[in-house]
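Key idea: predict the complex, not the pieces.
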Amino acid sequence: MARNSVLVMGGGAAGVEAALSEAAAGNKVYLVENLPSIGGERISQGRIITDGDAFNTPDVAAVKSHENIEVLTSADVEALIGENGNYRVKLRCRTPRVDREKCDECGECIRVCPIHMYDDYNEGLEWRTAIDFFNPESGCYNIFREEMPVCQQTCPINLDIRTYVGQIADGKFAESLATIRRKLPFPLSIGRVCPHPCEEVCNRGQKDEPVSICFLKRFVADYEAGNNATPIVQRPEAKYSEKIAVIGGGPSGLTCAYHLALFGYEHVTVFEALPEAGGMFRVGIPEYRLPKEVLARDIEFITEHGVEIRTGVRIGKDIGFDDIQKEYDAVLIAVGAHRGMKMRVKNEDADGVFEGVKFLRDAALGNEVPDRGAAIVVGGGNVAMDVARTGIRIGFDAINLLYRRTRHEMPASPWEVDAAEDEGVNFHFLVTPQEVVVKDGRAFGMKCLRMQLGEPDASGRRRPVQVEGSEFVMKADTIFSAIGQVTDNTLVEEKHGFQFGRKLNFEVNPDTFETDVEGVFASGDAATGADIAIRACAGGKRAAESIHKYLREKK
Amino acid sequence: MHLYEKKGRYIIDFTDIPTRRVEMPEIPVEERKKNFREVETGFPEDVAVAEAKRCLSCRRCLGCALCWAECKPEAIDFDLPDRDVDLHVDRIILTSGMERKTAPVSGNIDNKHMNVVTDLQVERMLADTGPSNGLVLRPRDGEIPKKIAFVQTFWTTEEKTRDAALVFGINEAIIARKRMDVVEISFISPELEAFKTSHGNALEKVSGIGFINGSVSSAAEVGQNKDIEVRYETDRAEKSETFGLVVLLTLPQLPPSIADAAKQLGLEVDYASFLGNRGEMVETDRAGITFSQDL
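Result:
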């Protein structure tokens, strides 16, 4: 009869030793471990070793066979309350999928398991099978099953990357593309421009380099286009008659419209203020990264699902927001963030100073743009790189890019920075603009100040501090500011009752993308502030699901 | 049955590791001037298929049931549910767990060099049940390195935890040296002087390891052999030396499961709470709860 009951938290060498000594004293012991197995040899960190005692090897076999010790692995502690003599513990043990009462530890399962995965037990030095015992003495056989690979978990729109890459490996290109399009209608575009957060976490990167996931997506999409194959268009069985207005024909709005069409909504109208649909895909990302005809193919795929796109219609001007609200059962606002932020320097409004995003937009639409002499680009993000690389192509003699920190702190994708440098953009790091120098009523140059890096700030980046007396003037005929974008929210008025964030973005419930106004949703940059395209698409998909739920519940 | 036997008998190695991924082909810079032609030209079919085959499919159980068919005692049950357990106990013993963190070092951001490993990986290499028969090998080519550097790249304000981290690394160096006496081993730490005040006597008895009181500024891959060049500063000079393998020391910390449990019990703990004399229990101010000393 056990005298006392003891909970030992942690199944490492120390826990095993504590469990054995408590059990030897006649107590009932519960040994609880969060990992799937207990034990494991340990090198001491308490004393410098001498000969013969290199490892602390806990006696796992003794723990396993001791009648007064119960081992609980894969255990999460859900609640722990009480006081001396009376503690209550609620545990949830994740399933090992192996009944250890029945298991005779013959190891046959390991022999036949065809899955060889990253060996977490050996710190990734080797491969192990998906069914494994982790530590031979413990007998903790366990099947490692996981809902989702890490790349898919990381992808904002949750693309089933493992499946579509596997289908490419098998030569099943059409199937692979269909897998992507179940969630994302922009494989050609995203396959070119995505900064691919999935690749940063790719487990292959632990071994050598991550799989080139993004460009594989581009490959299958290009393959279909290159072979003039007709894309497979899904025709939903359900049909719904509600009318939905999508304001903004960019990545988020079009993805939302696509998913609404897939749900069965037959009256989805996209209003696009510009003469061409595509949003930042069309007027933000330059042609040399995403050709217009490539984008047009993605958009055509969306319209083939029955989505109507009305270009050249600006809500709040051509049609009032009130009329939209009256006419439609649900509204999505996905107008992006197309207005440049102010540099907040003197003479910023002078002739010859432009917003970088406006320059990109005009260049993409074939409008007149400045293209002579020397230009300065202020900023270190991907928009600044796009402005600089477009500037080089459009005819400027020199492009000087100013950034107030160093290359290391630049938010732009490193491959964009490298390409800009290769193409001849002059980078000036640790330089801050002070004032636009004006001569004869127009910009003549930028008065700048040199910086040096000081202590890290809240974002963890080292804060630039001014170097006293380091002012200088850099000559320029044209100055572009590319230091961030905000949303143009003038399509609505105060009376409509929306709340706005710091980037003039529409405040929404982050899970459902609902605004405070009934039946009106917002997604993409217009809701989140400027962000990457795939996240805008993901928001559009989520908004479509919310709109569907809203309309079905309302009925 | 040991894991390394298992490897020899059953596991098919990925013969293509390590391999670089395919670079995206681009048009040359001269051809980009004054035009908007697409810069990146896309993968040809054979290249794409080869690249797709690099995917490890993040191999997890797929439910193929081969093991299920093979299991004579019928112990495998894919639908076995999670289990809720309610316990009543008189006392609780907390241990420190086995979580450690490393600090990145310039030249090896994102741990990109295969011949830079952590002391946790070296512990597995040295262990009987580890993957390499108890030898410390270079992950890049499986060779025994000629020179190994153990380096401390983190800073900590807590002495007991720091000393534990250093003892852990020094012990590994001692074992490695004993098993592979042809290997030259250096141990570089900016806090060796402070460490000696508590562990000086024991350190004097250690032979065959070069202790350097220095601060490491970078660890970068060099040459075809993929050796690692370590730059460090001592109080006298700035130095650079090339090693076949670099071991980053890690700092022990409490895993979330233990920290959460302690929090629910209303205890203030950190890793140092578990450090003291071997085999002794530390009483807490809550009766019925003790900390088990780390070994």
